[in-house]
What does this fold into?
Amino acid sequence: MSTIREIISSAYDRLEEAHWNIHQMEENYHESDPFRFALNSFIRVIKEVPQILQMELQNRDGFKEWYINRRRLTTQDPLISDLFKKRDIVVHKSMLRPKSSAVLGITEGRGFKLGLGLPLDPFQDSDVLIIQYLFLNNEKEGEEDIFGILGSDEESLPCIERHWGLDPFEEGILELAVQAWNTIASLINDTVIWLGEDPSELHLTLKCIHSSAAVSVRTYRRDWIQTINSDIKKGIEFYEAMYKLKVLRHRA
Ligand SMILES: [Zn+2]
It folds into this structure.
C-alpha cells in the first residue's frame, strides 16, 4: 500500500517548491532580480501542479470525470486564471513587469514618521532610492534634506518601504502568492479526499505567516549614510555607492 505522499509525490513536491519560492521572495524583497526570479518561478511552479496531479492519477477509475470539474473550479478563480496567463507570457513571450513603488522617509520604531511616496522601477533594488537621494542632495548642498535623512537623530532611522504588486490586483505580491498557494493546495486537499485518503498526512496549509508588512521596510543606519555621503563628496560613482552600501549591510 502506498501512502498518499507517495501517490501524489510529484504534485506535492511542486506545491512545496512553490512555498519555498514565497520564502525566497520574502528574503529578497528589496533586491529586484532575485525577487522577480523567485516570483517567476512561483508562477511557473503553481501552474504545473494541476497538470502533474492529473498525470499521477489519470489511470484511476472515475478520476478524470471528477477532476475535470474540480480543476475547472480552480482555474476559474480570478487570481489563478490571471497568474496562469502571466505564466504563459513568462514562459513563451517576455518578462513579467510587476508594479513597484516605495516610500522614502524616516521611521521611529514601528511605522513612518515622515515619508515621500516615489515610483521605483521594478528592475531596480530598493537601495537605488536612498543612493539617488544622497546624490541629489549633494548637488543641492544639503538644502533639500527635509526628512533629516542625513541628520544624526538617534531616535529614528532613514528607511524605504517598498510595495510590490501585480496588475490588476490591489494586494501585495506576497499576499497574492499566499492566496494562490492556498487555492492550489485546496485542489490537492479535495483530490486526496476523493481518493479516500487523509489530507492531514500532508501540509496543505501555510503554518508560517507571510506578509509584506514583515519585510517591506528596510532601514539604514545613520553611520552607513554618513560614510557613503562623505564618499559621494569625494567623488565616487553611483554604482560604487550602491556596492559600498551592500558591503556595510553585510558587515553589520
Ligand atoms: Zn512559509
Summary: The chain has two domains: 4-96+173-206, 99-164+221-251. The CA atoms of residues 8 and 56 lie 6 Å apart.
